[in-house]
């Protein structure tokens, strides 16, 4: 991991919170780039598998509070899907940038228990916003990202396509995600530029890939075939839909 401040400390007075950016798995509203190659039914089922495996990954971490943040209209459905072991919080505003801003506005301050969900401990927080489509990420990367936050203002996990799969902070920076080009190949570049403008120190985790297009699924399939326990629901989906993925990739290459 590269860092603007390599001397990492540790405090026993703060807590770690991993917040998964999610949507309800509704047909036509999730993983829309994959819908160009696969049926809506298959894509919706995939997203549900990715989300549930991501939650399982998050809950496997020791000493980490886990929550989900989503559009307000999706909260009821996600609470039913995920059960009461994960706190589900509605974001303020619309879109992914608003969701990211909501993560840090909401979770960097001590929070009381909410509704029938699981309450989070009070205290100073290291908060990481994590996407819902990287359940194959090694847990050690998330642990390292939290550790990096002890001595840096931000931690960022870049994706191979110019975006990022995680971003973490200890306090809210309201302008950090303004005009950041989320969902484009310039998202990471814009985030880094804004962090520099705000004079925030940062650590960078190892690059990774999330699941956006068929080529990502083709890359993921052999990885999960060798180690399906990393993301068992997604591995089962790939075993069922592998032929359709191969066929759709072949058509795209013609």
Key attributes of the depicted protein:
alpha/beta, Spore Coat Polysaccharide Biosynthesis Protein SpsA, Chain A, 7 helices, 8 strands, 38% helix
Number of strands: 8
Number of domains: 1
Instruction: Specify the CATH homologous superfamily.
Output: Spore Coat Polysaccharide Biosynthesis Protein SpsA, Chain A
- Portion of residues in beta strands equals 15-25%
Q: What is the strand arrangement across the widest sheet?
A: 1-8-6-7-5-2-3-4
Number of helices: 7
- Please estimate the helix content: 25-40%
Look at the structure and give the CATH class: Alpha Beta
Which residue ranges are poorly predicted, with pLDDT under 50 across at least 5 consecutive positions?
5-12
Termini distance?
39 Å
**How many strands, what sense, and barrel or not for the largest sheet?**
8 strands, mixed
CATH architecture grouping: Alpha-Beta Complex
| Series of H and E elements | EEHEHEHEHEEHEHH
Instruction: Specify the overall morphology.
Output: globular
Briefly note the CATH topology name. Spore Coat Polysaccharide Biosynthesis Protein SpsA, Chain A
Rounded Rg:
18 Å
> Structural class, please?
alpha/beta
Structure, explained:
Helices cover 38% and strands 17% of the residues. It is of the alpha/beta class. The protein has one domain (13-211): Spore Coat Polysaccharide Biosynthesis Protein SpsA, Chain A (Alpha-Beta Complex), CATH 3.90.550.10. An 8-stranded mixed sheet has the order 1-8-6-7-5-2-3-4, with helices on both faces. The radius of gyration is 18 Å and the shape is globular. Mean pLDDT is 88; it is low at 5-12.
